[in-house]
Amino acid sequence: MKTLSVMIVDDETPARQRLRDLLADVATEVPNAVVAEAANGLLALAAIEELPVDVALIDIRMPKMDGIELARHLAQLEHPPVIIFVTAYDAYAVQAFELNAIDYLVKPVRAQRLAAALHKVNYSRPPMAPQVLAQIQQGARTHLSCHERGRLLLIPLPEILYLKADLKYVTARTASREYLLDESLTHLEQEFSERFIRLHRSVLVAREAIAGFEKSATDDAETQWQALLRGIPEKLPVSRRQWPLVKSYARQFSS
Questions:
Q1: I need a labelling partner for 174 at 20 to 30 A (CA). Which of 17, 26, 51, 159 fits?
Q2: 234 and 190, same structural domain?
Q3: Looking at the 3D structure of the chain, how many domains does it have?
Q4: Which pTM was predicted?
């Protein structure tokens, strides 16, 4: 049996130590080696960039980036680890995991249950579907991610000025650069409705990124409104259909 490389992700030091001890206890039955530990999702993603792992034991409730969001980013890796969630009893999470055949451990974790979960890792199975994880997650993500030149890049939501759909991809624009996302603009609008507002069918703009509005004449001399953005010179057109929805922002800047 192959020795499994394991990463433990939990914000509580005693919880990580307990999992490490339990993994040592079951190592004869299921050979394993702990190769990385992390106190939150951001640190876990940084660690796995340096050292790929076979299985990740991930706590759900963590600061900065919770376990469900971490799993959504890990699913984009070329060779994602098998994920086993570790949670204090949460009826919603447990029900969702059972409905979607996602393996989980309930705290306090027992050695026998941990061994059984690790045994499953040795059987080939597809990674978790991103849409399933999206349904399970409560609340919006703190970061978006994209694959670029073999690396997984994280984009903090507060840095994104706008999101623009282009064919099968969505471009996320920050003050410094653009990122290509393999996501749906419609789904992004639903998840981040409090942060972004739609300017037209292919563009969402961060509410806080709007610096003002101005009128411009199109080629046929028809007047059109454009949104001015903070931090970049680019201007975004506002469709006539969407203008009534964003007009309140125009009033704020003209007053």
A1: 51
A2: yes
A3: 2
A4: 0.86
| 120 and 35 in a common domain | yes
> What is d(CA 77, CA 66) in angstroms, rounded to the nearest whole number?
18
pLDDT in tens, 112-140: 999 999 998 866 566 677 777 887 887 88
Q: Is the same domain home to 153 and 80?
A: no
pLDDT of 101 higher than 70: no
* Domain span at 164: 143-254
Q: Domain boundary residue among 136, 168, 188?
A: 136
Is residue 51 located within the same domain as residue 159? no
Same-domain check for residues 78 and 174: no
